[in-house]
Amino acid sequence: MKKVILLLLILSAILTAQKLTLRQSIELGLKNSKDLRISQSKVLSSGAKIAETNSQMLPQVKFQAGYTRLSNVPAFQVQTPFSPRPIKISDVIPDNYNLKLSLQQPVFTGFRLSSLKNAAELNNKAVATDYTKDINEAAFKIQSYYWQYYKAMQLLKLLNENLVQNQKHLEDTRNNLANGLVTRNDVLKLEVVYSNTKLQQIEATNNTDIARIAFNQALGLQMNAPTEIEADNLQASEDKEAEVYKYEDIIKEAKENRGELQSLKFRLDAGNEVVNAAKSGWMPLVFLNANYYYNQPNSRYQPPVNQFRDSWDVGMSLSWDVWNWGYTSSQTVQAEQNALQTETLLSQLNEAVELEVYSNYLTYQRAFEKITVSRQTVEQAKENYRIINDKYNQQLSTSTDIIDAGTLALQAETNYNNAIVDYAIARTKLEKSIGRRIF
Fold first, then answer.
1. Does any domain span residue 369?
2. pTM for the model
3. How far is CA 237 from CA 78, 128, 232, 241, 327, in A?
């Protein structure tokens, strides 16, 4: 019995709809975002690239070991006129063991390593900026699905309320028909309206389910999870005036804060550093080398003996490509053209940002204006419906009048709710295009 009760409680918890505020939705969606995991992985990868470049500037230590078996040959001997027999200088040692510890330190690389290090650090800043931008993009995506889900729920709610009203009018009209106060045609009109509203309710239910699925997917939840949202914090309907944005100020702010622009600037600087690294091929390379040997036999000792002996050497080496058939110049041209492409992309993106900000600015202003107009329309439609309904109850208006009044009221409420959602999305979209955080 206890197991059955526990199972029912678990099942009830699963089936209970999870109510989420906008803030909770954003936090959950960002936490579960696969795109952000990829973006964060890129940040870690670019950080490792910096460490890789730094390692090339530090001493490189290598250890080598080897064994060689030599074929048997006669011992090294010298014939002298004073001795009837050859004098053996050294024995043949067929088993050779070689142990070597080497150290190499770059002294001068034509500024190649320092340029590559700077490029890696700049690319890391670019990727980190992209990560912040991706968080903003993910937050906007979540908010868009949130408000679309809210819009679908509100429409379904209005249709449910309208369906109840239509059913009441239909029942009243049927009673009036039985009393001979209305015609059969009046009843038929209301029945048609009721059926059409029922069809709209079915369609709205389906659209709400689809909006919920998209919302769940954006949050990283199971698509069939019974989620619900709480939009009590929606302030658009209470705003008396839209927030004032000065176009010149928000354009300037966008160009300073937009992650795409910052990222391309870092990549442009990194590209210039790559150009410097490519030009280093025209300059000499200088290295400090040190080696420690522990061999059996050690060739530094003569005559060689079959035992381990150590030795070492220290030196400087210089390498300079006098002619490489245009390899360095080709690399330089490629790096310069890549930098030029990035610079051109930056110029294009600046223009695109201006257009996007201005477009979103206009959309935001129009969205607020729609709220004001639609709010007045709702008040007028409600008053019109109240008057027509009173007249209908007193047999002073027809079923056509009450149908038209109800349709106008429903449309006004729908437009008002849509205007509120559109305003919320437009405001968030404008904030995002300016480069502000929306999470």
1. yes
2. 0.82
3. 110, 37, 11, 10, 66
